[in-house]
Design goal:
mainly alpha; Four Helix Bundle (Hemerythrin (Met), subunit A); about 290 residues; homotetramer
């Protein structure tokens, strides 16, 4: 019976950590998000010299508090899940691990701090707490539109890169090193800056011929900007129409909750679901 | 009877101030708009040192004239409305108040002048005087398209912010302080400048690796620009089609006037309306 | 009979000058376009100091040749048309006049040269010589899409201007004169540069708060860019669909020629037309 | 029989060089792509002074290895094809020739190196090796959408150029040489930089009037950006709809291979094809 009890304890912790439907689970997720945001703000503040000079110790301590809490959370996640390997090698498992280790790494190697940038990805958890199936639906639809226009966008990106290499080399030959086009990779970089209409202006053509070629590149870029927009727009209209035909808003009435199966970690279960739709594991009994 | 008379006087003033259908109301609104524009021009001229040095007194007097007229108008609006509280806490009530007080505030605190920027919002009144239900319809349709794509745009903006934090931190680590990426918030700022294809160029990557990452950010930004456009475009086509089906241009024939109910301040009454469609108050009798 | 003869001579000249269907008319139009292009190139070359210093006399003579030819053409156009007033006050009549006079004006006033920029508008004649009803159709369809989305684009532009005034004033207060935001009009100018994602970078926010506000402006601008695109795109799809339904490509088979009625100057007559569809004047007999 | 044997040997080499269906053909294409990429990287590295100074000899040898291999490949292609003229004057024939000769040219003339930029175009072969009829279909659809909106885009580009000339001349007159607008061609260049929202910022208006005109140009450019996007988007939606109606995905099931006819060089044969669909030549027997 003690085994069952222990199992129950794990089950409850699992519910708190992995779900946002119970009050405890909601509180846990809110606290977690606050700490994720705090950890990002901490890293940002550390990078500002004036602030780091004044409050170095406070920031250092804060960073350790966040690291210890993240470590505890990571361990708890592994313990309460039935198949820890599945969690560890899942997208969020890897992100959780990488956002926890930078401080430990800083003992051994310098630069391990680079991983802290990945903490921002943890913010994606916000979608779960908002429990907005609507938002997930929106992102699915977006992903769908992007996915079905993948082939076209690949062709397009390929064309952009080839054009950049050709025009970049041309500009290097026309403008030369004295006008900032010091080598071909830099020229290609300038070409992409121009094609995408970003236009930093740190490098700019000085010779009349260079400016003429730049004009062609810009007008081309202007036309090119229309292509991915047209593609996504058309695919999106299409998928929206299809969805309109298939169900007249019916699907939207099905409410999905933030439950995560303890066994296989699949999400988006229906509210009335008793068993996991992927592996058949009982969702509530544990 | 004097009460009725007074009431009538108030009613007439209400008609002049709040409506643009009578000749007097039209003249009032035109004069008001001229003064709003004049007040904005005044503030702009004051900010130009050369002009302020030369004509300081004239500008100061002009500012006071505008302030006094705005004060009178504000008081008149409160007096002639049946439920002053409703007006005071309405969108335009607050804007009217805030555009009136800066000069009074300047006696007590410096910086109160910041509120003058809000005067521009008063220009929105122009839609009423133009009496263009057509324009209002256009802005409603726009608002509708934006509203129904809100969820998708939120997901999108969230993705942009997370990407900016990750790439911003990365660029800070790659480029470092010596190339202008002095701290992470500034790097994130640069990243948003680049993703949105604004590209000021006050900060620009100098190292080859930094330029390579910048290239990825720009091409990503290029693809990302397609997403909100595609969304709005698709939603817009959809809502336009729906409207086409529902009414074949019939709704557009219904002419709405600029009448404002004296009781509840609701607008967009039909031309033939005798009573407010929201509260049942008689629109013309007062 | 001499009157008829003279009339015939005028009629023939009219056919040469105003139409591009006869070989003579075609040659006339090609020569005219060459001179228009030459006149634009002349003005450009004159503006380049090195070239002007070397070839000043040649350019001066060239400019006079162009001016005299344009004058002759202008007089011929007036003589051969039945209702000269109609031509003189038509769009092309005014453009023709303004592109002819700059050299004459240069005797009296300096700065009259500014009008030469309008010569570029004469290039629009190219559409007639290309005789591409297809292109005219394309530009009509474009104009139609823009026209039917006029109301929406007005609302949109109005919103952009109001936002620019508000944020421009805010940036002036936050950044101040020491960071390049020397006065409110300049701040508003910077705001529009940023909102439209042009981003020159001659002025850029330096304070953290200013950069934060700039971030908001940029992301807003990013969203805003989606709106006019979505509108035009939707209107365009709509009008294209409508056209598809109405005629299945049938209209495109009707061939329109470049004939201009000698009497009322209306264009786009059908190939088989004998009389002007606007005024009933005989198109070929004169 | 020796003639047949020789023919067979040529046929086999043809299969290896021109096709990617046999294992040998696949390996050949992968190796070729690696060398194309290597040749592009070589040219880029050569252009970087530091690297060229250190490894000049290695790069020079590498360049010669690539040139000799490209020469061998070019000769092999000519030998194994039945109608060499057709190959030599085909798009890829010319590209292959131009990417091979720069090193030979460098003996005679300086600047022949400019042709190396064209090597990037050889990368287009990647589509064949990926054997992705899907991608080819995608690029065809794109090309179709662009083709059918050609007339509209021409009108649009023409309008952009005329507007640039007019506003460019205006800005030259307003800003003058002291603010960087040294001559009209440069002003026109600046105008295109602004209209396309690139905005380098190497030239920027300094006078209030110039900044006001710039504002108009930018807002115009903002509206103009909507036009090509709207066109492509609408054409694309249209062609996608048409394709949806014609075949319900049936065409996509027909699998095309990378076979090239030895006789007429036509590609995209069906998997079950025995004879060339263009000239009737036997595809496999040789």
């Amino acid at each position: 019976m003690s085994s069952t009890k222990k199992y129950n304890w794990k089950g409850k912790l699992h519910e708190v950590i992995y779900e946002a439907d119970t009050p405890a689970g909601k509180i846990f997720d809110v606290i977690l998000l606050v700490f994720i945001l705090a950890s990002i703000v901490l890293v940002m503040l550390e990078s500002i010299n004036d602030i780091d000079a004044k409050y170095h110790n406070a920031l250092y301590i804060g960073e350790w508090i966040v690291t210890i809490l993240f470590s505890l959370e990571y361990v708890a996640r592994i313990i309460t899940v039935k198949k820890p390997k599945k969690y560890i090698f899942s997208f969020f498992g890897i992100i959780d691990f990488l956002s926890t280790i930078p401080m430990y790494l800083s003992f051994f190697i310098i630069g391990g701090q680079a991983l802290v940038a990945l903490r921002a990805l943890r913010l994606l958890r916000i979608f779960r707490i908002l429990k907005l199936a609507r938002y997930l639906g929106a992102s699915n639809q977006l992903a769908g539109a992007i996915k079905s226009s993948r082939a076209k966008i690949s062709v397009f990106l390929f064309a952009v890169i080839i054009a950049s290499i050709i025009f970049g080399t041309l500009m290097y030959l026309v403008e030369g090193e004295e006008n900032g086009f010091t080598n071909i990779p830099k020229s290609v970089y300038w070409c992409i800056v121009t094609l995408t209409t970003v236009g930093f202006g740190d490098i700019a053509p000085q010779t009349p011929l260079g400016q003429f070629i730049a004009t062609i590149i810009m007008i081309m870029g202007y036309g090119i900007i229309a292509v991915p927009t047209g593609i996504v727009s058309a695919e999106y209209t299409r998928s929206a129409n299809k969805k309109d035909e298939e169900n007249n808003g019916e699907l939207e009435k099905t409410h999905l909750n933030s439950q995560t199966c303890q066994n296989c970690l699949s999400t988006n279960h229906k509210d009335e679901a008793e068993y996991c739709y992927t592996c058949g594991h009982n969702l509530h009994l544990d």
